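Mods, move this if it's the wrong board.
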Amino acid sequence: MFLSTIFLLFGIITIHWLHNQYQLDILLEITPPPKNAPLISICVPARNEERNIRRCVEALLAQDYPNFEILVLEDRSTDSTAKILDSLPKQDARLRIIPGDALPLGWAGKPHALVQASASALGKWLCFIDADTFPAPETISAVYAKALESEADLFSIFTHQEMGSFWERTILPLVLTALSAGFSPRKVNDPKSDIAIANGQFIFIKRTVYDAIGGHAAIKDSIVEDKDLAVLTKSSGYRLIVADGGDFVSTRMYTSLPEMWEGWTKNIYLGLRDDPRLVVLGIFGAFLAFSAALLLPLWVGIGVYLTVASPNQVSFVILSEALILWGTLIYWRIRANDAMEIPRWYAFTVPLGAAIFGTMMLTSAFKVILGKGVVWKGRRYKR
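Not the wrong board. Structure tokens:
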């Protein structure tokens, strides 16, 4: 019974802490387009994005900001991305399609694509947007106004994640909760803290600052270039701001379990690899995930069995504490699902999602320990 009570207290504290790390004090707001608008260069890297590229470019062309250009770097896709780009309206002078060069040795794909795009960009601000990201028409105006207001040198927003499939709704909310625990937005926005991260789906940076820190050439071998660009910016003494842009921008990252496995094991692996101390944290995170997946249901089952087989005060307490912790977890997952516009019943899929997420974390941790690499967008990276 004593262990049961300890587990209950530990569980409640951990659940409450995990679900209270996502504190974004800066929100995008609808803002009239500026009259004296500097040129903004929107750079979109596109490799094997046939599912998203048309929707992304059409959303960008619909922006109400009066002075922008769009540079799409077609990064030697092996699907129909290039054909789709060729079918877009050629008469719109704001849109330029740039054929990508072959990937040089020592470079990761996305930094190389964005170096090429930014080299052709003419704007005073650079806006890096992923091809699976879809901004509302007011987005660029709102981002520009909020970046000026917050005196940001690099301004990044967290987007609304579109989740249409069972696996997305089961796994992705847990991943996002874990990320917010590792990179508290308030600490990211605090210039006294060395914690830095940006969302590569949408990064807005002054051209002068980008050039001063060396741009993507300074992080040419990074596959988590958003985090590394944020670290480089903040460590160089510039102001880094992250904000909530979920009402303005949506993203559809992955649509199937295999895509999620490839994408998130890559992200977790690289996060652990770049800071070996995080391997321990990753293994601990996997323990928490497996606790939700296995230990908590097992605890409830043991409580039910003991209560039925030998009803007494001890069995009642064990069952009650297990149900209290289970109820606490479901309560917080329902709140998180409401915020993400996911049906509430998905809160009950936590054991399944946690088991898969825990396996992802362990897989990534062991890849780091064994020195293995990852495959992303058809390219293998070992460093």
